[in-house]
Amino acid sequence: MTDDLSLDLFEDAGEPAVDSVTPPTEAAPSMAEGTAAPSEGDARPPQDADEADRPKVWSVSQVNRAVRSLLEDTVDALWIGGEIGGWTRSRAGHCYFTLKDEKAQLRTVMFAREAQHLPTDPEEGMKVRALGTLTLYEARGEYQFVVTKVEADGAEGLWRLAFERLRSLLDAEGLLDPARKRPVPRYPECVGVVTSPTGAALRDILSVLRRRAPWVRVIVSGSRVQGEGASGEVARAIDRLAETGEPDVIIVSRGGGSIEDLWAFNEEPVARAIAACPIPVVSGVGHEVDVTISDLVADLRVPTPSAAAEAVVPDGEALAEGLGRVPARLARGLRGVVERRRAGLSDTLRRLGRGVERRLLPNRQAVDRALVDLERSTRGALDTRRLHVANAAGRLDALSPLATLGRGYAVARTDDGQVLRGVSDFSTGMRFSLRISDGEVVAEVLDTTTEDES
Amino acid sequence: MSDQATEDTPLEERLKRLEEILVRLESDDVPLEDAMKLFEEGVAHVRAAEKVLSASALRVEELLASGGTAPMDVDES
How large is the ipTM? Predict the structure, then answer.
């Protein structure tokens, strides 16, 4: 272990600088040869004759330096597994804790430079493995484990823990509420894309957009998508794109990678930027199986960059096909209107139809056909209707009283046309008329007799 | 073509208007003259939308630090 790191540790602990208590290097006993105790080594031989008989006395500093060298030189970097105890993170970002098992514990330190890469702090008692080297903290004569990596047991360990912690935080704020999710427009004019300008994700997205909806305008807001500070960059790229006010929808995306590669999308800045974005956001990060915090906050989560592109634009071919059928539907609609208004329809329709043809349709075969179709079926409808009328007339004739009168019956009516049905309708001397098959006869009542009167 | 529709009318609006026109044409209470106008407007929207859909090249722009945009060179492979 280098002096630098010891110094860091030292200063952070508020102790005096290590140099002030460390003897000059050349005075330190050498233990590099594997000897277990201080030996003469290249220490200078005593000069004073009086001291020749006395035992060699080492300073504490010399011994600690020697033991430290012994530890550092004889034990290679190693993984040690154990439980976390007393994890503390100093203001400077150094992390101090102990690794324990049932019987023993080991003082451990992780300096800020490495600790900043931890997705989150481990929990008390969490089972971890740590990679590091053994060394001695000379000022205290304590031996310790200086680690560069801490990994929790189980799949994704600390990453999973960090994910869950941020998820609970955002959930508590209501940012994951399904009710917050806005619909993604079906026919955007402009699509914003936040991703690496040189990445495969952008290529995939553009290729899908080009195939499905070449009419859209795409604005790429480039950002690094992994590494130190990527999360903040992605967040700013989202903010800046939103500020233009141009896109109807924004894709936030990157291709697949390890959980570390995707980590920027699991960090708070990206989550907050998506939540605050006034434009609907679609998140397509990683491969099918990857779920990121950005996925959870976004208005729509899709599994990959390509899927994000497919989700934001319609399929142009299908849309064109649908549009191609619309003129016929329009014509059918118009025909319906016309059929519901039969009076004088044939003429008006032909006149209007010709007008439409003249004005709109010279280069539109589909509508042309639709109109011909329209005229033909309208004429058909007319003929049918005429037939109906003829039939109805026939039925009417059969029911007409004239036919009955033809068989010799007559209808008796008063002068004002009221039909006289019974004897009580007549009175002696009253004038009335008889309607018979070919005309009227005026008559007068001479006498009346009611049947069945007894 | 309705009074408001222009060359720049967004596709979404045209498609929405087309839906409205179809619904209206299929309703019972539209006068013949109106139906003719709707028919003509519908056909015009179809033609305009088809023109939009026939765009040949995707326009890709890059957001600049200034907040403006510039055409972006992209690998089409």
Answer: 0.86
